[in-house]
Amino acid sequence: MRTSLREDYLEAILIHTGRYSHPPTAQDLSEVLHIDKGEVSAHLRELADRGDLRLSDDGRIVLTDQGTTTGKQIIKKHETLQSFLSEILGMDRSSASDEACRIEHAVSDETIDRLGDYLRSPVIQPPAGDRAKPVHSCPRGHQGHTSCGYARSLMDYEEGQRLIVRDILGRGCSKRLLDLGVVPGQLVVIKRKLRNGSIVVQVKDCAVALSPENASAICVERIP
Amino acid sequence: MKIALIGNPGAGKSLIFNQLTGLGVEVNKYPGSAIELEYGNVCYKNEKIELVDLPGIYSLDGDSEEEVLVRRFLEKDGADSLIVVLDATKLERNLYLLTQIAEYSLPMVVVVNMIDIAESQGLIIDTARLATIFGTEVLPTAAVLGKNIDRILPLALSSSQSPVLGVPYDHHIEAALRSLEKTMGTPRRKNLLALQGTGDDAALRDSAGSIATEIEQRHQMSVGQIIATNRHNFARSVAAEVVKQSPEKKRFDLDSILTRAFPGIPILFLILFSLLLSVFVIGSWMESRIVGGFTEFILPPFAALGLHPLAERIGYSVLVAMEAGLGIAFPFVFTFYLGLSFLEDTGYMTRAAFLADRSMHRLGLHGEAIIPMVIGFGCAVPAVMSLRILKTRREQTIAAFLIILVPCSARTVVVAGIVAAFVGIIWAFSIYLIIFILIIITAIVMSRLTPGEQFGMIVEMPSLRKPRIQLVIRKSWLRIKEFLFIAMPLLIVTSVFLGLFQYFGVIDIFQSLVAPITVSLLGLPEYASTALLFGIFRKELAFETLAVLSGTADLGSVMTGVQLYTFAIVSILFIPCISTVAVLYKQLGAKIAILTSAYSLFLGMLIGVLISLLMK
Ligand SMILES: Nc1nc2c(ncn2[C@@H]2O[C@H](COP(=O)(O)OP(=O)(O)O)[C@@H](O)[C@H]2O)c(=O)[nH]1
Ligand SMILES: [Mg+2]
User: Fold this and answer.
1) ipTM metric
2) pTM for this structure?
């Protein structure tokens, strides 16, 4: 059996299971994949031999762990490719999906990972090895950033400015900041800014003093 | 029956605790933590109630020592009821914590404190509405005025209820919580923690971790951020329903002066300088009283007992240690604590931290480090204990090396008693200058050498308040008790040992052994080494022992100016006193305790030799 066919099956079974919250029957698969029923049964037997799935007593097709993992990878590839084709290259969504269906079987994991990174923060990524290790508790895709890029940080505004928090970058993604109320969407007012960059902001009726490095990790937008 | 007070820092928990308990308060370390909790017993309607004042926290999900402690307390100790203290003037932020406490489903009553300030700010809080929303009793109080304080316990005993309300989380989070609950069988609260990468269940953290990564990719936000945002939004919607703001009168804000570089920084120096000066003046006066009392009323009767010389030696050592302990503890350390607690209670110390932030960065630290440093001027023991407020090991290590150099009140006595009295005031100040330079150099070197990353300061600046004298005294009293607890036994044991050494002539052997260093290198009389040795036990004792050994209080007549100056600086720098070493060991481990002692020994010798060479 071709790899691409196997992947199509696994993908279809996962999607069906997710959508209807029960696994598909051979009949369901035959409809979705436009393959006739007899052929589907043969394919399913082959996949069961490979350890990807098993048939339950009520005729439903249940994926094994191995099958689920592979299926999930394919779905992720599909989604990433589809967003890239439609959001970045401007293709319409349904042709993007068709195209993704074809590329997903050939594309490598690394390409998908990099495409994913690119989608989350459209800048050129340095080659592997130079990249900071991802930290679980920080927003993904933000690790390499130490400034807000073209967005402005708290440090760019003067005393008295009312601002909305948009994002908190790597270093600043401290739990304490979040607990004090510095979260995306929050209104903050700069109460005091010393020449050396130390800042006091008013958040929810409370004054919070910040070192410059923390303030510069808080991306904000001015309230017009 | 066990009831705990819980809430944000500065919400008024301690004040309420004091009003509810009165006397009979015990301070105990919470098992497995460096944090001390106040426990008090109250009798109400023939029932004994144990009340606990938990440390102030902003959240229950974090990794700070306070948060971990409170979390453990809620999970394991099973309070029968919680008194959640909210600050009415910052209700929204306080509700954020309440939403988290609610997830523990413990019976509770909610106290909306500071209602007096809220009213003066034109805030009207609909406590009845809050009670309906959370499904618990809500009581407005003004602890300073004693308003409604007497109703708290009866309410907690009769009508504590588990809150009925939970935060609606983002649907991906909710789905993750459900699936973790199903697969791992763990409760929602634990799953929330695990999704944020904390909690003590490693298997749960693992399975939550992969789900969290998926959610993070979808949202481009950390799970912690999503959860915090959900909670804040929920708190905001509740606050919007219960808080009405009538137009506020514009009032003068003291911060418009205090937090500006000018005149804020001169004011900061002025405040710190007056604090140290008054501690010194008041301390010296009180100390002379205490020492006088001892030499007049206690030592002569003891000598008159006519004990066996060995027993007399030991008894005498114990008495001297007590004299030393009391002579430093109450006059200097306690006075200093009074001033410091006063400053802390006004909320000024956070302003000081803000102003000092930049300079502290140059030393590899950040603004909050100014607090241990200032405490160090009083006594290094509490300064080391306060290192807890610095969050990283790196900062604690750097600050520990600096604290042992900061001239504490005992060292000030040495400088004043030896240098200012016999060499000259200007020379006394030059010692401070040398120490100041050494601190800067040490900091610069240490910030290069110490591994770890530097994080900045994120602190809430509470509004400035009139301090409550009773609270200030209480807090100082608790601190001095802590000091006596650590320092006193050590002082007595060391003193007895030194006494025995003296009795059996070990001291003389030591003296001649190190004579090459004392006499040839430092240019001091041979007996100075014994005085320095006593200085390890309490810095000020170096000076007193010197007077005893030289046979006169007029040190100027037996030693030259250079000798006195060298002696003073060596005794100040070399090896922090024994209590400091002990607390360094307890707080930061043997390695740091040994390294700091070795470093200061090296510095003391180096500077001493340099001075005796330069000034020959
Ligand atoms: N005006 C006013 N001040 C209060 C009230 N309750 C507490 N305070 C003050 O708020 C400060 C912080 O209180 P504290 O009990 O130390 O708070 P904790 O951190 O929660 O223990 C102290 O200076 C108290 O005197 C109140 O109801 N009204
Ligand atoms: Mg307190």
Assistant:
1) 0.88
2) 0.80
